[in-house]
Specification:
The structure holds two protein chains of two kinds. Chain A is of the alpha+beta class. Chain A is built from two helices and four strands; from the N terminus they run E-H-E-E-H-E. Chain B has one domain (about 20-290): Thiamin diphosphate (ThDP)-binding fold, Pyr/PP domains (Rossmann fold, 3-Layer(aba) Sandwich), CATH 3.40.50.970. The chains are: A alpha+beta, B alpha/beta.
């Protein structure tokens, strides 16, 4: 890989770095309690919670398991449990 | 209105789990929209989001040096103006680059009146290089260059009041916000980029590693800073306070006890004299901005 003065990179290339492997605790989404307020999507520092088929779904390829979504969920619809690998 | 579903800061960056600045970056870009050119200074955000050859940014971004993000932005803005283009030009820098190292270039850019928005994510120390104190470190916080011990209670100087300094430069819009209130950041950034002239926004971004708390508490700690009066969310328009978030204040201990950097105030013995001094800072803030309900 040549490293010149003035390097440039393709936008969003960080997707190659799968940060999901850092995870110790995994967020579990309970859709029966979810009110679809969108708080989790708004506050995720990774931006890895997406709205798929009207359900907020975390992308476990990138989720670092920080637990911010579980802590802030107003309906307590997210719980953290130990990752099984 | 800003499109809140827009993702311009991609996953896969190398920030700690629960990183306040990473969350701030996402929210800032939601406020700016896709027609934005970003300049960053050296700092935690630059390091975790752009390790070559990867980048988490989906907008044009340039990093030059530690101190000159605002000078680079000035040049870009002047060039765009000459070409008749109207992209937003923003700088996103840490508190070290803003309060200490980049002060000269910021002062110059604001004095020349470039149409840029300068955003400082304030995590209250040089976190990237290992938690050294900066001009933004609050009173009595323990850092590696202001360690608490038998002779010291941590940082001996109060936080620099940069919003007032930049408002005194004649900035038309100066605001502070916190990652604990995401919609507030988006709204204030959107207003700043659409205001003609140099604008300044300071985002309070709790750092779980540097401050010493669990990553899941990032927003809770940010909220406590506001509820105790140690951080005030306000807007200065043409130098006078337009709006400040009013709250029913809690004692500062609630905020200090959550963080390892203030642990020396409670262990082994509770240091009431120093806590009273920090409470006095909160009282001055409350009086200055009239935040008490």
């Amino acid at each position: 890989m040549p490293l010149n003065i003035g390097c440039s990179a393709r936008p969003g290339k960080s997707q190659e770095n799968k940060t999901g492997s850092w995870r110790v605790f995994k967020p579990d989404f309970h859709y029966d309690l979810c009110t679809s307020c969108g708080t989790c999507q708004m506050i995720c520092p990774e931006g890895c919670i997406n709205l798929i088929d009207d359900k907020f779904t975390p992308d476990y390829t990138f989720c670092k398991g920080c637990g911010l979504c579980a802590e802030q969920c107003p309906a307590d619809a997210i719980s953290m449990k130990k990752e099984e690998k | 209105m800003a499109d809140k579903s827009l993702e311009l800061f991609d996953a896969g960056h190398r920030a700690c789990g629960g990183c306040g600045p990473a969350l701030a970056a996402r929210l800032i870009l939601k406020g700016c929209g896709p027609h934005t050119i970003v300049t960053v200074s050296t700092g935690c955000m630059e390091v975790f989001s752009t390790p070559y050859p990867e980048t988490a940014w989906k907008v044009p971004l340039i990093h030059s040096l530690f101190e000159n993000a605002s000078a680079v932005a000035s040049g870009i803005e002047a060039s765009l103006k000459k070409q008749g283009r109207n992209e937003h030009v923003i700088c996103i820098c840490g508190d070290g680059a803003t309060f200490d190292i980049g002060m000269l270039c910021i002062s110059g850019a604001f004095e020349r009146g470039h149409n840029i928005t300068y955003i400082c994510y304030d995590n209250e120390a040089y976190m990237n290089t290992g938690i050294q104190r900066s001009g933004a470190t609050p009173y009595d916080a323990s850092t590696t260059t202001s360690p608490a011990g038998r002779q010291s209670f941590g940082n001996s100087r109060p936080k620099k009041d940069l919003p007032s300094i930049l408002a005194a430069h004649g900035a038309p819009y100066v605001a502070t916000c916190s990652v604990a209130y995401p919609n507030d950041i988006i709204k204030k950034v959107e207003r700043a980029v659409n205001t003609e002239g140099p604008c300044y926004i300071q985002v309070h971004a709790p750092c779980c590693t540097g401050w010493g708390f669990d990553g899941k508490k990032t927003m809770a700690v940010g909220k406590l800073a506001i509820e105790t009066g140690l951080w005030v969310n306000f807007e200065l328009v043409n130098g006078s306070v337009e709006k400040a978030k009013k709250i029913k204040r809690r004692p500062v201990e609630d905020y200090l006890q959550e963080q390892k950097r203030f642990r020396h105030l409670f262990k082994p013995n509770r240091n009431d004299a120093e806590i009273a001094k920090i409470q006095a800072i909160a009282d001055v803030n409350a009086l200055k901005y009239g935040i008490d309900i």
